[in-house]
Amino acid sequence: MNWILGPMLLILLIPIYESFQDEDIWQKMLAFASVSTKTSIMILVISVLRDDWMIGVVGVLVLSVGNASLMLLAQVLKRVNE
Amino acid sequence: MTNVMTDWDLAAITALLPIAAVMTILQKNPYHALVVRGILGAIAALVYALLGAADVALTEALVGTMLAITLYAVAVRSSLVLKLGIIAPVNLPEIELDNGASNGQQDAQQNSNPEDLVHPVSKSLEEIFNLIHSFEDPQELKPLLEDLRVFCDRHSLRLELHPVPDRQALDHAMETKEVHGVALVNGDSSAHPYSVTVRVERLYELMQTELNPAISTLSTTTIKPPPAEKPLVSDASSR
């Protein structure tokens, strides 16, 4: 199952590139949401591969916190654009 | 670790961190930089978890990604603003204060219900708030404000208009540093329709090269600091 990390890394590069080349702030936010979710899924996969539940708990927390921070930031940005 | 993943995998994922850091540095708009900082935080959490530091990864996700960018977004929003004082008639609506100052304190004391006291004031505050938000650009300042908005967009500033009723109030707002600059409509005899005065040196330097010189004349002024108050402690130490 170790081969799965390579494709995951390549897929992670797609939103990173998108966030760099697109000037629209909402496109960047979408890329941030994508990266945030993908990295936490990678943390979960690593935790399963290593059978390390401490990393698994961190992966679950990062998965939830990443979306919460996205919501907070989106609210502030929305007020700026009004 | 080596039985789970090769060193190449490890190196490739760790290489994402400097890439994201360089991307953050290259952003020009502060809001864009904040979003990319979020991406950097997410990748950093991944790398820390990968290297076995679960506690560091959790802290990076909670503090670095969530708290830091939210606080910075609020800070950038409140600091990157150009407050411009203009002369414009403000039509404040007639606000009726039922239990207000006209009836004096006796009514306030007799009226024991606290909600009756609070209600008219909060209602009037709401009306003033709506009024401020519904304030539109005055017609005679339109060309200048369009020019200023282009300038503000370029430097990701927010243009905030402070309408005051007369020239005296405008000068007072400038002296008390309520506004960063004032815009005035010149008379018909002048070659330039508008004149802009700013008290911030850096704004003056930027506007000098970027504002349309055909529309407005630009000048700067320095506000004298208020006279120093007498020290509360007498100079006992000098004796």
Question: What's the topology here?
Answer:
The complex is a heterodimer of chains A (82) and B (239).
Chain A: H1 5-21, H2 25-50, H3 53-81
Helix pairs in contact in A: 1-2, 2-3
Chain B: H1 7-26, H2 30-50, H3 54-79, E1 81-87, H4 104-110, H5 114-133, H6 142-154, E2 158-164, H7 167-175, E3 181-185, E4 194-198, H8 201-210, E5 216-220
Parallel strand pairs in B: 1-2, 1-3, 4-5
Antiparallel strand pairs in B: 3-4
Structure description:
The complex is a heterodimer of chains A (82) and B (239). Chain A is mainly alpha-helical and 82 residues long. Chain A has one domain (2-81). Chain A has helices at residues 5-21, 25-50, 53-81. Chain B has helices spanning 7-26, 30-50, 54-79, 104-110, 114-133, 142-154, 167-175, 201-210, and strands at 81-87, 158-164, 181-185, 194-198, 216-220. Helices cover 53% and strands 12% of the residues of chain B. Residues 99-111 of chain B have low confidence and may be disordered. Chain B folds into 3 domains: 7-79; 81-90 and 136-224, D-Maltodextrin-Binding Protein, domain 2 (3-Layer(aba) Sandwich); 92-134, no CATH class. Chain B starts with 6 loop residues before the first helix and ends in a 19-residue tail after the last strand. At the A-B interface, helix 1, helix 2 and helix 3 of A face helix 1, helix 2 and helix 3 of B.
Number of helices of chain B: 8
- Net shape of chain A: flat
Number of helix segments of chain A?
A: 3
The low-confidence parts of chain B are 99-111
Radius of gyration of chain A (Å): 15 Å
Number of strands of chain A: 0
Separation, N- and C-terminal Cα atoms of chain B? 72 Å
What would you say the CATH architecture of the largest domain in chain B is?
3-Layer(aba) Sandwich
Mean pLDDT of chain B: 77
Provide the spatial order of strands within the biggest beta sheet of chain B.
Answer: 2-1-3-4-5
Which pair has the most extensive contact? Answer: A-B, 45 and 40 residues
Q: Can you write the helix and strand succession of chain A as a string?
A: HHH
Q: What's the level 1 CATH class of the largest domain in chain B?
A: Alpha Beta
Main β sheet profile of chain B = 5 strands, mixed
Envelope shape of chain B: elongated
